[in-house]
Amino acid sequence: MWNWLANIILRNRIVLLFVIAGITVFMGYRALQDRIAYNYTQLLPSDDSAWVDYQKFQQQFGPDGTVMIAGMQTDSLFADLQVFNDWYRLDRAIKHTGGIENVMSVASLYNVIKNDSLNKIIAQNLLSAAPSTLAELDSIKKVIYRLPFFENFIYNKHTGSTLMLITFKENEVNTVRRIAIVDSVKKQMDAFGLKHHIAMHYSGMPYIRTIISRKIMNEMVMFLILAIIITSLILLFIFRSFYLVVFPLLVVIIGVIWSAALIDLFGYQITVLTGLIPPLIMVIGVPNCILLLNKYHTEYRIHGNKMKAMQRMVTKIGISLFLANVTTAIGFAVFCSTHSAALVQFGLVSSLGVMCTFLLSLFLIPIIFSFLPPPKIQQTKHLDRTYTVALLAKIDSLVHKRRKIIYAVVLIGLLISVYGILQIKALGFVVDDLPQNDPIYSDMHYFEKCFGGVLPMEIEIDGGKTKGIFAEGGKTIYKMERLQKMLKEYPIFSRALSIVEFLKFANQAYHDGNSKYYIMPSQGDLKSISEELKSEKGKQNLLKAFIDSTSRYSCIDLFMQDIGSVKMKDVISVIVPRADSIFNYSAATKSWLPDSQRVKVTFTGTCLIFSKGNDYLVKNLIESVLLAVILVSLVMYLLFMSLRMVVIATIPSLIPLAITLGLMGFFDVHLKPSTILIFSIAFGISSDGTMYFLTKYKQDMRKYKLSISEIVSLVIKETGVSMIYTALILACGFMIFIFSGFGGTRALGLLVSVTLLMAYSSNLIVLPSFLLSLEKRIEQKREAKSLLDVDLNLLEDESGAEDSTKEKH
């Protein structure tokens, strides 16, 4: 097959070039259509109960991640007329910014008052114009401080902190327009802070996602440039030839274009994961070119016939290159088994990108170099560099004479790693991929300290039927108040906002604004107050943010700190049963209410979805690693049809993974989606080296009548150069990711680099050691069989002598 393919490629060079060029033009156009994702990255599968609850909540009460938070800490807001008036004007200016739904700050608060003539409770703005005197400003301050509804929500009078809550329009928050809106808001805020020498703080999901989106796009470009520079330098170091650098890079860049186009062709967008694909393809694709060119140079040096060398290059290296790329593709493709949209997209595009780049290398390298002059002597010197030859000779001697030492070192390394593995914790934070010195972190800590947190947590209360929230004299609402009091016991939560707080606000208005009546109204007042809050059309107007139109569902909004997935799980495991008991356990009868009378309490929101998504991915990615091992082992079995060879082939690639796990434990690198990715990718790529070695081993076993020991030495000599260069390219290529602003990407780059160096070392040292140990075992069996045959022959001779003696007698 490979001989036939080589002939097809070399006989149809011009046609194939035009076909590939045409496809590349189309792919280039589609690559330019790639768009960055501005919405929440879905980690959970669409049918997961937590994700279904989250989507249902958003449909009823709107998205929970539409509020950008700006804050400051100053004593001059109510003491300096100019500062307050500038804040007032800033509030109005931002409110009129395109894409902004609403703004709330101390300059745009409202009061709830009772209108006796209309017999209704209505909302009325506190300010219709900026104050003109300090006395007027002081009176405004006193009015605001008499409204407990806004305390620790808009202002914190103990710390002097105040917020501006900027709500984005739903149709703008998840589009490219969000970046311009955030930039505009921040620019105006920064100008205010600069003018009055006040430090401004920013947070909220629109702001955080905008910063992350911008980082993704900038880093994708940066990594691609770095990958090109690094691979160019290594190719120049290896081949010392301009066109041996330019043309392999050209081939791989075409592969990058095709891979980027696949993102658009599948209808995907650029995320923190898919943004890694172009530089990954750049790094993974170059070794294909190196292996082909090394074989081309080796063959040409033997017989000096360029076209014959091209033909043999495809024939002899094609199968090993194909199998190596299949194992790499498997390392990515297993992410499709997670059912997580983000990982399925990454796995599908990257695995197809790997195979596309392989095909491009297999076709374009022989085509391009068939038109170029044959390699000169200095261009093939890389095959015989003194230090490379000496290193391979040392490895050959080591595996033949020091196998016990090799096994002992590996065993000690694995035993030490076991201790490190036991220290690993599965832990993720919403923003822990950002460095600790990032302004997002410091601002988040400011908001956590002054207002409790910035990450949305939502609680949905299902009254079970239409008007169920107000049924039985509003019993469910009073239970909601008990739930909010329970949540106050946990300092990780901000102050909760719900229909409870608004009814307290209305009760205060019902009693002429007396702040001591900021309490839940009595059952007698509850009905009349709720009726007075209705608009002329009979719909809940002032309550619509907290209750749906049927009065069956209500919600409690609060923010929380980024406490991490482990603590989140612990907190949820405690508060969910407590919430359930508040609504559904009868203290009077000391029993649970029947199902028909129960109120369903659902905890959801960005924080909870992230925590559940983190746990889901860790579990599924561990399964993906196992699936990768099984699939790669199956490829090995199809190649050798021997379970013994599968074990020998798989262990050298698994050893580095175990050691890397140990290193993660020792250096307190948490197990989370971004670090779990490492193992499937590293195993798939490290299996390449196994394939290079074993396919060459199998070919030489068929070709030469030599012992396993002699074949191993030959394979180390012939494949070792390419494997060393491949390890160098891959390790340096992945190392570029340590320059990322995302912790997970940095960990991926560093750990994959270390793992691949260990893996290729293992494939050059441990794998041949196993093969030689196998030879020793075969020889021992052969000797045992020979001795047994000798013994049987002696027995037969003795038996024959006995029979002969009997006959004589």
Can you describe this structure in just a few lines?
The chain is α+β, with helices and mostly antiparallel strands and 809 residues long. Helices cover 65% and strands 8% of the residues.
Topology:
Blueprint: H1 2-11, H2 13-31, H3 49-61, E1 67-73, H4 81-95, E2 100-104, E3 110-115, E4 120-125, H5 134-145, E5 155-156, E6 161-168, H6 170-173, H7 177-196, E7 200-203, H8 205-239, H9 243-265, H10 277-303, H11 306-333, H12 341-370, H13 386-401, H14 403-422, H15 439-451, E8 455-462, H16 471-487, E9 497-498, H17 499-510, H18 523-532, E10 553-560, H19 565-584, E11 585-586, E12 591-592, E13 600-604, H20 606-640, H21 643-666, H22 673-703, H23 708-735, H24 743-808
Antiparallel strand pairs: 1-6, 1-7, 2-6, 3-4, 5-6, 8-10, 8-13, 9-10, 11-12
Describe the structure using short key phrases.
single chain, 809 residues, alpha+beta, five-stranded antiparallel β-sheet, four-stranded antiparallel β-sheet, 24 helices, 13 strands, elongated
Write structural notes for this entry.
It is a single chain. With 809 residues, this protein is α+β, with helices and mostly antiparallel strands. The chain has helices at residues 2-11, 13-31, 49-61, 81-95, 134-145, 170-173, 177-196, 205-239, 243-265, 277-303, 306-333, 341-370, 386-401, 403-422, 439-451, 471-487, 499-510, 523-532, 565-584, 606-640, 643-666, 673-703, 708-735, 743-808, and strands at residues 67-73, 100-104, 110-115, 120-125, 155-156, 161-168, 200-203, 455-462, 497-498, 553-560, 585-586, 591-592, 600-604. It is elongated and about 105 Å long.
